[in-house]
Amino acid sequence: MRYANDVSGREEEHEPSLASRLRLAVVRLNRRLRAQRTDSSVTLTQISALSCLYNWGPMTPGELAAKEGVQPPSMTRVIAALEEHGFASRRPHPTDGRQAIVEVTQAGRDFVRAEVCARERWLDRRLADLDEEEREVLSRAAEIIDRMAGQ
Amino acid sequence: MRYANDVSGREEEHEPSLASRLRLAVVRLNRRLRAQRTDSSVTLTQISALSCLYNWGPMTPGELAAKEGVQPPSMTRVIAALEEHGFASRRPHPTDGRQAIVEVTQAGRDFVRAEVCARERWLDRRLADLDEEEREVLSRAAEIIDRMAGQ
DNA sequence: GACACGTCGTTAGCATACCTCACGATCTGC
DNA sequence: GCAGATCGTGAGGTATGCTAACGACGTGTC
Questions:
Q1: B129 and B98, same structural domain?
Q2: Which of A37, A149, A150, A151 has its CA 20 to 30 A from that of B29?
Q3: What is the structure's pLDDT at B138?
């Protein structure tokens, strides 16, 4: 099956930089995560935003966009999709007419508890195959990465 | 600015699982990486595939797709773009008429050494802000993640 | 009070990056 | 030889980001 090794003119082995290895790892895992399909039509981006609302409570679209690290226009579409699914709802801001408050509905809460866990089953299985020390490394890495990406 | 804390009916704080935290970190860093634009018209996906060819040597489109974790049709377009840029070239497989061998051109090698580093400058800067122990954590995490995503 | 200016959310339009389905060319086992 | 598998590709669809521009609303200044 592997052909590369048999071809003359092959590159020598390199020692890729940490940046290269981390980038590749992140890009790949991201692809895998997106590829995990449940039969529901809710996408990873939507789940991510919904989880954020679930964990942090009601907030404005702008705050949600900031937390997820996307631009406000991108979040608008995500919120609209969640609203269409009946998992989130918008209500007017009590004092500022420009803003709105987005919150999780009861259906949204049920969905987070059930489907989101299902969605993360693939990753959970992978994590379960690791030993405790490796999970600890990933836990610390998640925190470091989040800090790097966060700002 | 923060409004969520003031709203009644707020969720209690949860302790997100490792899967949740890792997913969010990966999704976010991935967004940041893709948002980094160099003036060149080569995308992150193309760079990723080109780096793969550079590091592993010539291989068939199918093998490259498998290594990158995408479906063959997706890789076809990436290879076409790389070929158009003059960074990769296709030649017929010596024994199997169905397959082809994709390899990096000299221009592609030069590009990997120069532009890819430029592309990774943002990440490099972030990594430089960490201490040695944190970089070691990320280095180990990159290896673990790659193993999880790889298969 | 009126007007200028800032902020917030949204709409519109675009680019990228995946996917699945379908097809033609080629190889292989009987 | 011929049926079926395999490989690469074309077509079309969806998701996910972005920027630019706009309308609604709030705020400070006179």
A1: no
A2: A37
A3: 95
- Is A87 found in the same domain as A45? yes
Two tokens at B109? Answer: 């090698």
Please name the residues between 33 and 92 in chain A that touch chain B, using a CB distance below 8 Å. Answer: 33, 44, 48, 51, 54-60, 63, 68-70
pLDDT tens, A33-62? 888 766 678 898 999 999 899 989 999 999
Q: Which residue of A has its CA nearest to B59?
A: A4
Average pLDDT, chain B: 84
Strand C positions closer than 7 A to protein CB: 6-13, 16-22, 24-28
Q: Residue B116: CB partners within 8 Å, gap ≥ 6?
A: A20, B47, B50, B51
Q: Taking the C-alpha atoms of B44, B48, B50 and B56 in order, what is their torsion angle to the nearest 10 degrees?
A: 170
Q: Is residue A35 situated within a structural domain?
A: no
Task: Summarize chain A as % helix, strand, coil (round to 5).
Answer: 65, 5, 30
Whether pLDDT at A9 is above 60: no
Rounded CA–C1' distance between B61 and D7, in angstroms: 9
Q: Please indicate, yes or no, whether residues A76 and A99 belong to a single structural domain of this protein.
A: yes
- How far apart (Å, rounded) are the C-alpha atoms in residues A64 and A73? 11
Residues B127 and B99 in one domain: no
Structurally, chain A folds into a number of domains equal to 2
- Residue A59 phi/psi, 5-degree rounding, is -160, 175
Output the pLDDT for position B39: 62
Same domain, A73 and A108: yes
Here the CATH number for the domain that contains residue B83 is 1.10.10.10
Region B64-85 average pLDDT: 94
| A31 → chain B, closest CA residue | B69
Residues of B in contact with A23 (CB under 8 A): 33, 48, 120, 123
Residue range of the domain that includes B132? 120-151
